[in-house]
Specification:
Layout: E1 29-33, H1 39-43, E2 48-55, E3 58-65, E4 68-74, H2 79-94, E5 95-96, E6 101-102, E7 110-119, E8 129-137, H3 152-162, E9 172-175, H4 178-184, E10 189-195, H5 216-221, E11 224-225, E12 228-234, H6 237-247, E13 250-260, E14 265-266, H7 271-285
Parallel strand pairs: 1-4, 1-7, 7-13, 8-10, 10-12
Antiparallel strand pairs: 2-3, 3-4, 5-6, 7-12, 8-9, 8-13, 11-12, 13-14
Helix pairs in contact: 2-6
Length: about 290
């Protein structure tokens, strides 16, 4: 079936619309970051950089590392941006942009998000590397898509425990790629990473606009489901894992904890620790 141009737009020169790149510009291994400024912090460790492109906050660098092709790509903040980036990455891998038809042979991407987060457990020290075994979405994005195999049991337990308000998007929970986790994050702090649809109110921060649910974070961090607990908050992982699951790509998120929301600690300078995380991921990815 041919996909209409209105459903998957491309540029005049045949590139995917938002990312502005072609299939030949994308490696099978992709390091994703929210911050566009972090892309060169990653690609400076490549052996070669063969391709660079920027459209808005979406920056792509592709090159080689130890003889393997690798891409560093910024998504911007939020699951709405992940909706764009993941759909277009999958299209680059699995749709012929000339005929606009799905390719017969599936190409699997390996996507590792490197970011920052706020810890929700008191024993997680500032600058810890926190790997998301599960992405727990408060954003509701994946309910716009057909999906099977998400972890409904933990969601039902969470909704009951927190008294989740029916006006809020219904949560969802998706596991990471165990293969990527075992290769890269085996010795890191790990647990359930929650993705909020904002930085302030949705993560329980009170500034001038007073929040509706001031005790929500305490309900979140006290939740337990067997040996699983919500370790940290950020803004992208749930959608990354959701699309990875339904489109059959491998996904993993690792964040530097730059704040602890329980102890109220905040990093004075997380950048050396982010650099250490980048080097660790690149050392382990191949």
């Amino acid at each position: 079936m041919k996909i209409p141009a209105s459903e998957l737009p491309t540029t005049n020169d045949g590139k995917i619309y938002h990312l502005g790149i072609g299939p030949e510009d994308l490696a099978d291994y992709v390091i994703l970051v929210g911050d566009p400024g972090r892309v060169p912090d990653i690609s400076k460790y490549f052996d070669t950089i063969d391709f660079k492109h920027q459209n808005r906050e979406l920056i792509t660098h592709t090159g080689t590392l130890r003889g393997q092709r690798i891409t560093a790509l910024s998504t911007g903040m939020g699951t709405d941006n992940i909706d764009i980036v993941m759909t277009e990455l999958d299209a680059l891998a699995n749709i012929d942009l000339k005929t606009m038809e799905v390719k017969q042979e599936h190409r699997t991407l390996n996507l590792v998000r490197v970011g920052t987060c706020g810890a929700l457990q008191p024993n997680i020290a500032i600058h810890s590397f926190v790997a998301a075994q599960y992405g727990f979405g408060f954003d509701g994005l994946m309910h716009f898509y057909q999906h099977e195999g998400f972890d409904e049991e933990i969601v039902e337990a969470f909704v009951k425990h927190t008294g989740w308000n029916e006006r809020l998007p219904y949560p969802y929970c998706v596991p990471c790629s165990q293969t990527l986790f075992d290769r890269i994050a085996f010795d890191m702090v790990h647990g359930v990473t929650a993705s909020a649809p904002g930085f302030f109110g949705p993560q329980g921060r009170n500034v001038r606009a007073q929040i509706q649910y001031p005790d929500l974070n305490s309900r979140i961090d006290s939740f337990r489901f067997g040996d699983r607990k919500i370790t940290n908050l950020e803004m992208e992982t749930s959608a990354l894992y959701g699309f990875g699951h339904i489109m059959h790509h491998n996904t993993l998120t690792i964040c530097v904890a730059i704040a602890n929301r329980i102890t109220h600690d905040f990093s004075k300078d997380y950048h050396p620790h982010m650099d250490r995380l980048i080097r660790t991921v690149l050392d382990r990815i191949f």
